[in-house]
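Quick question: what would this complex look like in 3D?
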Amino acid sequence: MLAIEARGLRKTYGGGFSRGAGKEALAGLDLAISEGAAFGLIGLNGAGKTTFIKALLGVVRPSAGVVRVLGKDPEDPSARAKIGYLPERLFLPHAFTPVQFLASVARLKGISEADDEVRRQIGRVGLSGEEGRRIGGFSKGMRQRLGLAAALLGGPMLLVLDEPTDGVDPLGRAEIRRILAEERARGATLFLNSHLLSETERVCDRIGILSGGRLLREGPIEALCGSETRYRVRFAPPLDAAALEALGFRPGEGDGVFVVDAPDPTALNDLLDRARRTGARLVGLTHDVRDLEDVLAEALGQGGERGHA
Amino acid sequence: MKSFVVARDLLREAASRRWFLALGLGITLGLVVIGLSLRMDVVDGALAATRFFGKSVNTQIRAADLALRPVFVASSYLIFYGGLLFGVVACADFGPSLLAPGRIEHLLSLPVRRFELIVGTFLGVLALALLGALYGAGGLVLIFGVKTGVYSGRLIVSALLASVTFSAIYGAMLTVAIAARSAALSAASGGALVLLGIVAGERERISEFFDPGISRTIFRGITLFLPRVSSLARSAGEIAGAQPVDSAALTSLLLGLVVFGLAALSLGIHLFERKDF
Amino acid sequence: MRRVAWLVAFAALLALSAFLMSRGDKPKKPERVLKAEFPRFPKPWEEERNRKRRTLPPAAPRPGEEEGVLRKRDPLLVALPMEKGKSAVVFEVAALKESPIGQIWLDCMLERQAENQRGGRGADKFKEQFGIDLFKDIDRIAMSSSKVAVLSVAEGTAKFDRSGWPKRSFGEKGSIWQEPEGGGVFATWGDEIVLAGADLKEIEAAIERLESKSPPREQTIPEWSVYGDIFGVISPEELADMLPEGQGEIAAMLRASIDRVDLHVDTSEDVAIVADVNGSNAEDVRDLAKSMGAALSLARAGAEDEGDERLRELLDYATVKPRDGRFTLDVALPLDVLKEMGPCRKRDAAPPPSPPPSR
């Protein structure tokens, strides 16, 4: 079953008779995420990421299209009962203690006998010993952990996390990654929105790139960050760089490193044979894998070109 | 019902707010001052002498319950109008606070229906108003009861009437808060409704000042839909002072007031259901 | 659809609330609100009236007293006994007749008169015999505990010669008629004052006071106390005697600590009574005030326990106000109550005559 499904999802803010056409935050988004996946949504500010998340939770109502969460309409409370959500800027009541806040969330989630669950999640996010303190005195990182604990209450089947590691120290991030891994192992679906692409890369196995309310790219992380037709080769000196460049090898970073595109293994071997004939001796060959930042920049560049075309 | 959870959270939040701490402290201080500095000499049920801070304030000797009637009437008006004004100012922020970014998304992501949030906030404020009124009026009744032996629940009934009146006005304030997400506008609407309600309570008499015709019809048309604040305040005073009250008219006014609150709440829910956050 | 439902609910509820609230816009007025004006000082028109009534020349100045400070005197007040410990009450008949309670009683009395006429009694018979119309000619009546009634009547209306009783002159302007076979004594002094009583000596004493050039300075009812529709002085002894048997303690306190009680009654709306209680010992007066207040409170509680709403309501309006060395007792009597307390009570309260059962 699909954990998240969006078809032709559109959302236009404002507009109307006096305000013109309004701002289109989602422009026909299609997305399907299977249960148990860890999906990361990336994109620039204003790309429509938060609007999409709010549409998943029923906080924002789509102007057109369909969105379904865990097979149900997000406005159905029984669907939301299985969702754990951590907003980007969670407002926490200052006068409450963590236990009081989580107990309140548990009651609203309909969790009975929630005391043990509340204490368990507090311990899980590393806030043990802080149960009696007022939230008003918490650091940003502690609040973020508490927000995560609220999202984890009741063992949700879908975790929607908006910048979960924002303000958390490096060790805390590792801890959160561990918790998310545990949740995945339990069978929960992760939907992550983070500006920290390295975090997304480490947690998620699928990525979606959003721009202008459209999904530019979507797929497994290996498929997006790696290239099946681009290779990184390293030759031992001495070598004839001019001859290699004439064959299509472009200098890469490091001594004797070159990058070459080959549509298939035969073409690759043919190129390598011709390089060896110039006197070059091959000492290393790998696929040319890029980081998410490059992928995003590339996708946005193409998207921009497409947009300008 | 999830609304009760929301209402309970609102009460807990209110308990930490300076406004309400000040109110609780003020009422307590007032009751303590009255309790300690008021001396009442009661002979066979008659209040023979009253001293406040050692100074004689009562010149009549009459049955204690009769002597206390003017005190209860004055307290009733104080609780009614004082409570309304305090409530309008102090509770104006609950609506916008519920809708604060980072909070409303989180609440809406939980398995709660939208209307339950609004009803819960309303119930929370209603409970707050009832608690404040019961504490103040109950404290006064207790103090006078201990000092004179007269335990009259009339002031408490009168205070409850004030609470219900405020709750109906708060229904409209909450609706404005949903529409505008502004505590200032919410308070302004509450204040305006109190003032207009005072006028509406006297609509029969005031309408006679308008020439018969369109101006009188407009005045009567507008005030027809407003809660009769001054009428209710007067009734509360009459109840506190053990004066005769037209119970049929009061019941009608009170029912109308409750329905007004529900109407305002319905409009608020309608706006809330349509709103994106 | 669900979202529109809330809007529809709003419109319907608003209309319903407007309907319900408009039904409460005109509350029924309470059956009757007490309108009692407690008389505490003379009104300007009363002072003016009192000034006109002072037709007697001032008493002769005492040694060392300047003549200029002396004022003329009201003959009706002068005719009243002046001994300490006597009670005297003046009824402003003309004002009482105009008051709501006066109107009610007058109507009733006129009806009764018609019944009495058939029996050869009543006011018409009195007018025929003595020339005074009891309903028209009397301006004031003063009653005293020396059993003398002083009437201020319309000039020249008294015609006691018609009675056929033996007449004799007394003093300069006095004439006395004595009933041959009874104890009744009537006297006139001038054209406007009529004295009635059973004791000839008391009547003669009253005429002597009216004609005396140096009467005692202190009148029973002082000039400053002449206000209200009924006013006067009640002696502590007589007041104590009026109390119910159960109030023996208060009666004893009254006798021991009170000098006099000034009474003033206003009947312009509901009847409001102010009794100003004076005593020489402030402490005793204060104690009495407390005892009176407590007695009223207990009586009210008793009435409440017994379900006597009328008495409880009456006592609701009774207050004791202590002042320096004295206290006032305010009592209000609503007209509704008085209707059933007056001379017409029995007849009004009686059930309508029912037809005899036919067998």
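Answer marked as accepted. Confidence is low (pLDDT under 50) at residues 305-309 of chain A.
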